């Protein structure tokens, strides 16, 4: 995929702020804080600083819309599972996510990101079944592939499949934002999503 143009459209907290003109097809990225959602967007568009990343969790707090080649959006969602967050902001997160996921007509697919090193958490499982219950395929991306050895990969992927109760048809794509491994395969999946 040749990236000619990529820019942030808006950091939204409420539906009135979601971009509507033009109403481009979009893919959203969900997952725990620190799993690598923002880094993945940067990797896909070959830009180091389009989406802001941080080694400490909780960096992305709003729904950030990125417009790519004037053709579609990538949507960076705020992460969950960050322990040092108040109850009220967890509730606000839930409302913001639910509103977005249930009302956004041009949302084609939600990618669920999990860290390849770790067993999916309860929240990952909830998020994944939530995504599926809204009618999305629930494509899973295993991030930070560079952090484990080649020999360990299949074992970790099997655990993710089992814990998220994925079927053999459900897509699970391992990637590294660091080495860019998996990038081409992921782009194929993205283009396939938008072709429907
Ligand atoms: P929140 O915005 O807090 O929800 O986090 P996020 O999911 O957007 O994570 P972010 O992209 O900010 O990445 C978190 C940390 O993980 C940063 O220090 C990244 O450099 C690192 N990271 C992300 N992807 C990879 C990867 O594929 N490999 C390695 N080694 N590090 C990664
Ligand atoms: Mg982020």
TrEMBL record:
Parts of the chain that traverse the membrane: none
Q: Tell me its cofactors.
A: Mg(2+)
Q: Which SUPFAM superfamilies match?
A: P-loop containing nucleoside triphosphate hydrolases
- Tell me the Gene Ontology biological-process terms attached to this UniProt entry: division septum assembly
Name the GO cellular-component terms.
Answer: cytosol
Name the Gene3D superfamilies for this protein.
Answer: P-loop containing nucleotide triphosphate hydrolases
Recorded superkingdom: Bacteria
The answer on whether this UniProt entry bears the keyword Magnesium reads yes
Which keywords does UniProt give here? Cell cycle, Cell division, GTP-binding, Magnesium, Metal-binding, Nucleotide-binding, Septation
The molecular function terms of the Gene Ontology recorded here are: GTP binding; metal ion binding
Q: Which residue intervals define the domain EngB-type G in the entry?
A: 23-196
Matching entries from InterPro entries are given as: G_ENGB_dom, GTP-bd, GTP-bd_ribosome_bio_YsxC, P-loop_NTPase
**CDD domains hit by this protein:** YihA_EngB (cd01876)
Q: Which HAMAP family does its entry note?
A: GTPase_EngB
Q: Which family does it belong to?
A: Belongs to the TRAFAC class TrmE-Era-EngA-EngB-Septin-like GTPase superfamily. EngB GTPase family.
As for what it does, the entry says:
Necessary for normal cell division and for the maintenance of normal septation.
Annotated protein name in UniProt: Probable GTP-binding protein EngB
* Organism encoding this protein: Geosporobacter ferrireducens
Q: Which gene encodes it?
A: engB
